[in-house]
Structures are given as C-alpha cells and as structure tokens.
Amino acid sequence: MKNGAIRACLLLALAGATGSAETAALKDAPPNTWVKVAEGGPGPRTSFGLVYVPAEHAFVCFGGSMMMNPQMDPKATASPYSEMTLNLQKGVWENRFPNGKEGRWGEPTGPSKAPGFPGSYYAFKMKDAEGNARPYLGAGYYNAMWNWGNYAFDPDRGRVVIYWTLAHQTAEYDPVARAWELTASAADLPQSFRDGMLFGAMCYDPVNKDVIGGQGGWAYAGGKWVKLAPGSDRIGLLSPSVRDRWLQARNLAGACRARHYVAESDREAEIELDEVAAELSRNTAALANRVRAASADARAHERTQLGRAAESLAAAVRELSKAERLLGGKVAPDAIQAADAARDGLLRAMLDIFALPRPRAHARMVYDAKNKRIVLFGGDALDRLLGDTWVYDPAMQNWEERRPKLSPSPRSGYRMAYLPKSGKVLLIDGYGYKGSGEMWAYDARDNEWQLLAEGGAPRGPAQARDWFPLPAAANGDDLVVTFFRDGKAGLGTYAARIDASRVDHDGTAKLGVPPLTESSYPIATEDPQWFEGNAPPADPAAEEDWLKKLPANTWVVRQAPNWPKIEYGRSRCWGTCALDTAGNEILSIGGYGNQDCCGPDSYVVDPAGKFLRPRKADDPKDLTSPFAKPEIAFAWIIGVAVTDKYAYVSDAINKRVLRVKLDYAAEETVLLP
User: Fold this and answer.
1) What's the topology of domain 3-230+357-518?
2) Residues 194-204: pLDDT tens digits?
3) How many CB atoms lie within 10 A of CB 609?
4) DSSP codes joined into one string, 355-403
5) Does residue 285 sit in helix, strand or coil?
6) For residue 235, which of 351, 335, 339, 346 has the smallest C-alpha distance?
7) 73: Cα within 13 Å, side-chain hemisphere
8) How many DSSP H helices and E strands does the chain contain?
9) What separation, in Å, do the N-terminal and C-terminal C-alpha atoms of the chain show?
10) Rounded to an integer, what distance in angstroms lies between the CA atom of residue 316 and that of residue 342?
11) What is the Cα–Cα distance from 605 to 614, expressed in whole angstroms?
12) Is 547 exposed, middle or buried (0-12, 13-18, 19+ CB in 10 A)?
C-alpha cells in the first residue's frame, strides 16, 4: 500500500474517533436534556448548514455568509475556514481544510490562512487566488451566501447539495474528499424556480435519487433542476377553475374596498357589485358540484383532497350569498368582511386542491426513512404563520396535507431532524408562539404529533422572528446537535440524546392546536379590515382640493390618518404596488444596479458551465448578459408613480427620478370569464 493511501486511511480513522467521542457531561445527561458541547458556533457566520456525515461519524458545518475580505472588514482576519467539524471530545469547532492543506492553511482551531479571492468583493466566486475550488462566503454585502435552509445531504453519493439563493448557483460538497464542485446555475430557469427557492427548503429523496426543493415543486439530479408535476390529470383539470374563482373573489374584495374609499374609476363605478357576487356564487356552486363528482372515483389521497376542496367551495358560496345581500346599497365594512371571507374560502379551496404546499418561508423538510416519506411543517406565509403538516410520497410523487388531531402551534424558523433510532421526526422551537422552548415528535405512520418531556432546566423564551433560522442534525443514535443563542455571547453549540418515547401528554393537550390553525401577526394594521373599522370616512371633495393645491415637481409630506406601523421584517417592509391605467400590475422595472446590472460590463452566463462570471476578453461578441439591459441601472428603487402616459421611478441612491413612457411589447384582446 502506498504512503498516500495509508495517510488517507489514518485521516479517516482519526476523523471518526474525533466525531464519535463525547464529553462526560453529555454521556451522563438524562435523555432530552440539552448540554452545551462547544462555546460559540462555527465562526462569525449566519445562515449556514449542518449535516451528520456517517462515513466520518462527524457533524460538519458549511456555507453561510461570513466576512472573508480584510479590506472590507479587519475582523475577517480572525475568520475560521468555510467548513468546520465539531470535535465533541474537545468541545470545539475545528477547521476542515482540504486534504493536504492542514497546517499550511492554518491550525485546527483559530483563523484560516487560506488564499484570498481575487476580483470584486460583490461577486460570487468558487475559486480562490490559487485556483482552489471553494466558495467565497463574503460575496456582496455579507448576503449573497445566505443559505436559508436550501441544502440537503445525499447519503447515497456522500455529498451535500447546496443552493445559494441570492447568487442563483447550485454546488456540491464532498465531505470525505473535502472538495467543492459548482454544478448548476439558475440563469436559464424560470423566475418561478427562483421564487420557490427563496427562503425555501431542500431534502434528499432516496427513492428517486434526487433532491426535492423549490417549495416541493422542483427536483435536482445529475447536476440539473427539473420541474415536478405532482397530482393526476383530474386534479390538473380542476385546479385552474378553482384558481380562477379565487382570483375573481379577490378582485371582488378589492372592488368593494375601492368603492368604500371612493377610489374607483368612472368605468368601475358603473359595475353592480351585488350582481358580480351573485354570478360568482352561482359559478362557484357549480364548480363545487364538479369537484364533488370527481372525488367519487378518485384515489384515496386525492379523494380526501377533492372532498376538502368541495367543502371549502361550499363555504365560499355561503359567504358570497351574504355579500350579495350586503352589496345592494352603499358598501359598508360588513360587506367588505363578507367579500374577504369568500375570498379566503376560495383560497382555502385552492390550497385543498393544489398538489403542492402553499409558498412559505423558513420551513424545513426531512426524510422519514422508516415510513419513506418527506415531512414538511408550518412556515411563514409573510402575513401569517402556518401550522399545517404536509407529507410527500416519493414512490407516488405526490404531496398530501395531513390533518392530525393536534399539532404544534403555528410557527416558522424551527429546527428539524429525523431520528433514525425512533423512526420519528423531531421539531425544535421556532418563532411565533409563547412560552419556553419546545420539542415535538411526529409519527408519520400514525399521523400524530406529541410534545416531548425535556430533562434539566427549561430553556428560555421562544426566539423572536429571525432572518436566519438555525440548523440541526442527528446521528444514528438520535444524538442531535443544534445551536441556541447565549444572549450577548452569541451562539452556543448544544447536543441532546433524544428519547421520543418520553412524551409530555398533558403538555401535548395544552399546547397542541387543531388542524387549519393559523396565526396572524399581532400588529392590527397587518389586517386591511382594521382600516374599515378605524379610518375616517372618505372625503372626495377634500382630496380633490388637496390635489389641486399640490405644487408641480415638488415632494410634499402627506400626513395620512392611521398610518400603518412599519417594522423591519414585517410584510409591509419595502412593500409597494403600482398599477397602470388599465389596472395591470407593474411587476418589475429596470435592474439592480449595485452588482448585477452594469450595462455592457454586466456578468455573462458561461457557455460551458452555465454560471455567472465576469466577461473575458476572448468571449464571443454575441455572448450577451441577462443584466446588460436596460442600459440605465437603478441602484435602489423606492417608489413608482403612474399617470395616463408615464411611470415615474424614484432612485434613492442616485438621487434622481426617471420618467418611463408606458408602452407594451405586445397587446392582445381576450374575453374575460
């Protein structure tokens, strides 16, 4: 045997011994008791990943956003390496340098001395100054490498698949070889893929040998992402009709508010809203009958799906009938509430019949090997927290919404891991509920959530809403490693040996919630109905007088009554909507000018690797950039105003307002349903 092979075997043996050894405090701790096993976390990084690598019996951290450029931040000289291993015996995180770089790039603990990265601080990079393939975690305002849970460990190939949401890049990391490979770019994928991956989750599917991502609607295998098509033809035929009814109900609710606030156009004011509600009620009742008939010979899970949708449609019909009665005269708040209830009922029907979970942020997916199912719970819908349980059957390639008798309260940002020894899914904490920390276990076979009894002192209050939920991972003995915040000290690394049979039955009954429970944010102004009950009546004459006195080309502060409270991270943060004079929503204007949209010098898509990179001197002249147009790059758009001919766009950083002529690349007249 060659020396290199002997050395490799020795390295693996040492890694295994380091990863599996435990401190006496952890060994002696009762089940379900969290013990601090390392001061701090894996360096000054945010939004990182954590997996257990069976080949090395080790917990490995990777990715996240971390300053690596001393010119931008002197503290970067103290940053550890981009990948780290938890040494449970010593109670420290150790740099996980590539094979052969140990010692040359730094000590096991402490700052990394690996080569720097050339080029722009903002750019996504996968090669350092010496050509080593590894990620630059400091790209772009600390944030391009935020992970947000978009990673999964593929045990069949022994690789971690990671998608960097803001960089739109997919890469793979081989923990044993300690090697990175850039595999796919999202440049050629539709916007729906990027939308689905934002704040999403990923999970390995061992049945189909792929990674599920994009809110459960995309699969990654062979270095490529492909769109999944769950559900049968029966569901596919009915779903568009349910969605159309929901859109019509949403428009009805909007029209009610426009009339209440005297904000209609002359054409809109001629519409009889009670007749609109009556027609929508009739069409929805007919659709409920179609859905009910289709459920008669459907497969088991689809029969449940269609039955629920039929019930939700019937509930929407009742609300539409109520709205019809109330809309015969002046539009009052009770009519708006009825229209809102009909809209929400049709949204529920659409969610019932759709073959995918609704979009959500900061939710996790894990594979339950015992029951051969992928489990997803709750999440942040941005205007509410969810408490639903979804299960994906890889063999049938379909999603099913489960409705257990009791579930954890609606929450997001939790940690989740599969417990191989007990065959259950573990959920830890999360934001959006009151009380101290909680652990719940889910049995996919029995469709049952149970609160676990914890040992030791209770943990502190539940975390507040967090942009960067923390990860967790479990080994084959149900030893779980995760992180808790230690106040001003930052993160602490904790471990507990979980016994899912130790159930707190009283706590389950007290803290569990019934199916379909959702939690709205506590700020009243998140709900539009708050304004109908608290805002003064509309005064069109006073509004017209104010507009006549408004000086030209002059910004004037408008003091509006009951102005909604703005909180960083809430749904109104950075929010705006602009419509043209035909009522069409303007979805996007220009491009982001700080990094991507740089005119002729914008990044191009590499023809071979399909990743974004700076333009090279020998690139073909016809190699265009997706960001090269428009030539005027916006730095920070903070407002859009629309008249009958133009849109006016305010660019805060460049301190200018640009006038854009309203024109259309294509026009088509269509019949509306």
Assistant:
1) Neuraminidase (2.120.10)
2) 888 988 899 99
3) 13
4) SSPPP-BS--EEEETTTTEEEEEEEE-SSEEEEEEEEEETTTTEEEEE-
5) helix
6) 351
7) 15
8) 11, 30
9) 76
10) 5
11) 9
12) exposed
* 60 DSSP β-pair partners: 51, 85
Count Cβ neighbours within 10 Å for each residue of 322-338 and write b for 16 or more, e otherwise: bbbebbeeebebebbbb
Within 8 A by CB and 6+ apart from 103, the residues are none
Predicted TM-score (pTM) of the model is 0.82
pLDDT value of position 539: 85
CB contact at 8 A, 584 and 647: no
Which sequence spans correspond to the domains of the chain? 3-230+357-518, 233-353
542 burial type by CB count under 10 A (0-12 exposed, 13-18 middle, 19+ buried)? exposed
Residue 323 has, within 13 A of its CA and on its CB side, a CA count of: 31
| Residue numbers in the chain where pLDDT is lower than 70 | 1-21, 69-76, 139-143, 434-435, 457-467, 487-489, 522-526, 562-577, 580-585, 587-602, 610, 612, 626-636, 653-654, 664-673
401 HSE (CA, 13 A, CB side): 25
Nearest-angstrom CA–CA distance, 42 and 466:
18
- In this structure, what DSSP letter does residue 600 have? G
* pLDDT on residue 387: 95
Distance CA 131, CA 97 (A): 15
Here the tokens at position 15 are: 């890694």
* Residue 450 buriedness (CB in 10 A; 0-12 / 13-18 / 19+): buried
Contact present, 617 and 553 (Cβ < 8 Å): no
Query: The tokens of 231 are what?
Result: 């559900």
